[in-house]
Design a protein that fits this description.
377 residues; alpha/beta; Quinone Oxidoreductase, Chain A, domain 1; Rossmann fold; 2 domains; seven-stranded mixed β-sheet; six-stranded parallel β-sheet; 12 helices; globular; binds zinc ion; metal-binding; NAD(P)-bd_dom_sf; alcohol dehydrogenase
């Protein structure tokens, strides 16, 4: 067919991205070719960009196509694809979100239902973009979904703008709470009210949590958490030491939380987060993604004597995207949710500036690559 699309290739920390044109291949049987509308710069992208992950840094020497928090529409359907992964009719032009990874369905974790722990779940992301189908990451005009990769049509009334954080920040927060088993009436503490934490506040309320407490050091983030339904906030700067914060949370929750979700990304908060739990509580570790500066200490007795569960969560079960999109659709007029998806827009050729912005800017909104600008029609 002769069409080409742009991809911004990463060659390692400190090096500029290189825009390369690749041929756009027709999707094979069971595959979907997406034309991307927006891709945000996620915290994990920033870690790779800064060279904080030696494995990724090695792979980048040959060129990597990063980018995964993305939304787009169907460009072409491969043969046999007539519906999305939820069984809804799917046609060219439909706005879609998709899981940026694909559980294999056959390994032990997959067959036991823990698909986000699949042994090869990330394999698809690290394929060399120089080889077909080229569009294996989302800092590009197109994305080539593999057979079986979860794809969901956005419901009527939802535009790609509304789904901008669905497949990473919003879904990840939802998965953390799901693994924490948040049930109706439970008391939930969210450590860190950045992008992930704010979606977690909204998700916890939607799951029926009886009380949600947000903990952060920035007043505007705490105000946003309150606007999204947090019942109480704890401003870290008002309490000089962790013990003061623990006391405050235990007071607010009447003896401790049922679930604490860590999305602050600072190892020092884990110990105090565990102490914020009631007996039998669940601690969900999701925020420490920097290799080497991820080590925390928790006294074993603080866990075992009080029957605390400590659970690590990465990625999510793609099936939850339906619930996540439902939440984002219902909240599409919410000012905080709208603001989270309204980070500064950059054309793909300005991706280096977008990354610099992501590093310098501490607001919860992620910079967004607007792939309609300068891309193929
Ligand atoms: Zn992400
Ligand atoms: Zn698997």
């Amino acid at each position: 067919m002769g069409a080409t699309g742009r991809a911004a290739i990463f060659f390692g920390s400190g090096k500029p991205f290189k825009l390369i044109e690749y041929p756009v291949l027709d999707p094979g049987p069971g595959e979907v070719l997406a034309r991307l509308d927006y891709t945000s710069i996620c915290g994990s992208d920033v870690h790779y960009w800064r060279g904080e992950d030696p494995v990724m840094e090695d792979l980048a020497a040959n060129g990597l196509l990063l980018g995964h928090e993305t939304v787009g529409h169907v460009e072409r359907l491969g043969s046999g694809v007539t519906t999305d992964s939820a069984g809804q009719p799917l046609a060219e032009g439909d706005p879609i979100v998709f899981a940026y990874f694909r559980p294999c369905g056959r390994c032990r974790a997959c067959t036991q239902g823990r698909v986000n722990a699949c042994e090869t779940v990330m394999g698809g992301l690290l394929r060399p973009p120089s080889e077909p189908p080229h569009f294996v990451g989302a800092f590009a005009d197109y994305y080539h979904l593999r057979r079986g990769q979860y794809v969901l049509k956005l419901p009527d009334g939802m535009t790609p703008e509304h789904g901008i954080s669905a497949n990473c920040a919003a879904a990840q927060s939802w998965m953390g709470l799901l693994r924490g088993g948040v049930g109706p009436g439970e008391r939930v503490v969210v450590q860190g009210a950045g992008g992930l934490g704010l979606y977690a506040v909204a998700a916890a309320k939607r799951m029926g949590a009886g009380q949600v407490v947000a903990v952060d050091a920035m007043a505007d983030r705490l105000a946003a958490a309150t606007a999204l339904g947090a019942d109480a906030t704890v401003d870290v700067t008002e309490f000089g030491d962790p013990a003061g914060r623990v006391d405050r949370v235990r007071e607010l929750t009447g003896g401790g939380a049922d679930v604490v979700l860590e999305v602050a990304g600072v190892p020092g908060v884990v110990d105090e987060g565990v102490r914020m739990l009631a007996r039998g509580g669940r601690y969900i570790e999701m925020g420490q993604i920097t290799r080497g500066s991820d080590v925390f200490q928790v006294p074993a007795l603080a866990l075992l004597m009080r029957n605390i569960s400590l659970v690590g969560v990465a990625l999510y079960d793609p099936q939850i995207l339906r619930d996540v999109v439902g939440m984002l659709g219902d909240l599409r007029a919410d000012p905080v949710i709208t603001r989270l998806g309204s980070g500064h827009r950059y054309p793909l050729e300005d991706i280096d500036a977008a990354f610099a912005d992501a590093v310098a800017n501490r607001s919860a909104e992620r910079p967004v690559l607007d792939l309609a600008q300068g891309g193929p029609a």
